Amino acid sequence: MSAEPITLKPNDRAQHLLRVLIQRFIRDGQPVGSRTLSRDSGIDLSPATIRNVMSDLEDMGLVSAPHTSAGRVPTPKGYRLFVDTLVRYREPKGGDMEKLKMQLSGSANDPGGLVGAVSRMLSDVTSLAGVVSVPRGQQAVLRQIEFLPLSDNRILAILVINDREVQNRILHTDREYSESELTQAANFINEQYAGQAMPTVRDRLVDDLEQLRASMNQAMVDIIAVAQTAMDPQTNSDFVLAGETNLMDFAELSDIETLRRLFEAFSKKQLILELLDRSIHANGVQVFIGEESGYRILDDCSVVTAPYELEDGTVGVLGVIGPTRMAYDRVVPIVDVTARLLRSALGQRH
To answer: Which of 131, 137, 157, 184 is deepest in the core (most CB within 10 A)?
Structure first.
């Protein structure tokens, strides 16, 4: 887990009350008062004793008292102690496991679809936002390309990548081309560049165009120049985010300005990619609570991530984004299990 260590440790009684307070606050989202703690704690303590313990925890920076309430709420530091030492993690329910396994098995032959399916399933199972990055370093190799003419000066490029994956891309041209011209261009690309990584094909097409001008008609050169734009490996430096609207269900994230800034961060992607990259070489699950992410927009959020690695060394990261008031006891094991299941599903393709 990621965090600075807590230097002040509450005693066993205070730890128990802190655990009960955090569990209650996660469940209800309301400040927790002494009377509630006395009832829920299962130990015989007077309200005065509980208030004294709460005061000690507040002095340690583990809880705070909102001005509008006599109750206390956990601070990010309190959540950190809870996640690292107090929480009792629960194995994922059988129904959750079955959902994950079925979704993974149904998409195992389509890596792009698999990443999207896992993101949606993480969101569905946790009721948070699910995020999965495509394995970093995974090579997209061109096996075959075909061109089909469309209306309005457009061409459909059909690419077969890594033997199984098929991608369709629309290319815009300055004029219409005949089927024979498109077939001739496709044959040339397949003969010269099939079996090479997509970025390599794109770069070689750029380099070779000048030489091609002397030996090919203008139509062929124009088609190949347009075709280079189809060679960007669109699925290999990105992530899939699902369930962002689940965050609207949490009062602490639901005001319009917070949501606007969160969704803007999601759409720009760079912030999320940088955060996921920090988990690439982690040993298991990482939990970033509030300011630990390093991004102000996520100060009211927690991000739970886990890397997954394939036999060829490529690495990706998956996880969930939600409020600091998330059910860590349930979410952390789900993220951990999902990473292992995804690694297994993707490994079956190699």
So the answer is: 131
Query: What's the CA angle centered on 75, arms 71 and 76, to 5 degrees?
Result: 160
User: Average per-residue pLDDT in the chain?
Assistant: 84
Is the pLDDT confidence value at 277 over 80?
A: yes
The range of the structural domain enclosing residue 194 comes to 142-231
Exposed / middle / buried, residue 132 (Cβ in 10 Å: 0-12, 13-18, 19+): buried
Q: What is the CATH number of the domain that holds 58?
A: 1.10.10.10
Q: pLDDT (tens digit, 9 = 90+) per residue, 132-151?
A: 987 765 567 888 999 998 88
With respect to residue 2, please indicate whether it lies within any of the assigned structural domains: no
Q: Tokens 């949501």, residue?
A: 259
169 pLDDT more than 50: yes
Confidence of residue 287 (pLDDT cuts 50, 70, 90): very high
Residue where the block lists tokens 């001005």: 67
- Encoded tokens for 196: 């090479």
* 23 HSE (CA, 13 A, CB side): 16
103 CB-side CA count, 13 A:
22
Alpha-carbon Rg for the chain, nearest whole angstrom, is 26
Q: Which of these three, 231, 261, 295, is where a domain ends?
A: 231
